[in-house]
Design brief:
- The strands form 3 sheets. Strands 6-5-4-7-8 form a 5-stranded parallel sheet, sandwiched between helices. It has a 4-stranded parallel sheet with strand order 2-1-10-11, sandwiched between helices. The protein has a two-stranded antiparallel sheet with strand order 3-9.
- The chain has 12 helices and 11 strands.
């Protein structure tokens, strides 16, 4: 197909992802887009973090009745850290003896990769849905139960509070966290280009990246201009409702695919921009 006939020919897309960014950028460029890669945050493993080992041992000693896994990546990082620090056998015993609930298919896959089975998966692949499931299966009462909660880079205080309000003792582990990733200074570049109306869409695969982008915009005096760009035509493409939430809190209407996957996000974005191009041609 000639370059000018590609579905995203002439479009400029901002990509805020750090992890798996190459796959996303390649897919967009194959469709004809010019990409501004501005990794707002990166995933920082904590394999050597003594805090992770201490939190893990506290959980193992408590022998949790339930363990809630929010990400498959988090479980894999947790297991890798456990192997590196010598508590992998304890981790497997903990998961084998507890009822393990997962947020989505990747978490289920990670559990099965360890030779285990989960007790259930949230219907909408969100942490809120995961907690909804656990509370529903226990009639809203977790009194006397200990719950292990694997966090995914940020602490979801609201969902943890729901568990404690239901009577649970909640112990957490954080196998990875978010850290600044913009070593090349591209986030301000993306903000300036977007604020000037020279970007057609920005993709988000993690909610903290939204905060990082708008924080940068505020630091360089372009917060309102960035908001206006999203309000007046620039699309915000997200991988799912969790990522979309901070954008919605800003009064924006991001794209959210039915399947919470990067491929589905890119297809939805491509279709939306193609439809917009067709409408522009008819004017």
């Amino acid at each position: 197909m000639a370059a000018e006939n590609l579905p995203l020919a002439g479009r400029v897309i901002g990509v805020t992802a750090h992890r798996r960014a190459e796959d996303q950028i390649s897919a967009l460029e194959r469709r004809g887009a010019r990409v501004i890669h501005a990794p707002a945050l990166r995933v920082e493993p904590v394999d050597e973090d003594s805090g992770l080992a201490a939190a893990s041992r506290a959980m193992f000693e408590a022998r949790p009745d339930l363990v809630l896994l929010t990400t498959g990546y988090g479980l894999r990082r947790w297991h890798e850290a456990a192997e590196a620090q010598g508590f992998d056998a304890d981790l497997l015993v903990c998961l084998r003896e507890a009822s393990v609930y997962v947020r989505g298919p990747k978490g289920r896959g990670a559990v099965r990769g360890l030779g285990l089975e989960d007790a259930g998966m949230s219907a909408d692949e969100t942490t809120q849905g995961l907690v909804d499931l656990v509370l529903a299966e226990h009639d809203g009462d977790l009194s006397g139960r200990t719950v292990g909660l694997q966090l995914h880079g940020i602490a979801d205080a609201a969902q943890r509070r729901r568990l404690t309000d239901a009577g649970a003792r909640v112990l957490t582990v954080t196998p990875y966290r978010w850290a600044p990733a913009d070593d090349a200074g591209q986030v301000p570049v993306l903000v300036r280009e977007a604020a000037a109306g020279r970007v057609d869409a920005v993709t988000f695969t993690a909610a903290p990246a939204v905060d990082a982008l708008f924080s940068t915009a505020e630091e360089i005096g372009l917060h309102e201009q960035l908001l206006d760009a999203f309000r007046h035509g620039m699309l915000a493409a997200t991988v799912g409702p969790v990522t979309a939430a901070p954008l919605e809190e800003l009064g924006l209407e991001p794209l959210v695919p039915e399947r919470f996957r990067m491929g589905a996000m890119l297809k939805q974005l491509t279709d939306a921009l193609a439809d917009r191009g067709a409408a522009e041609e008819r004017r």
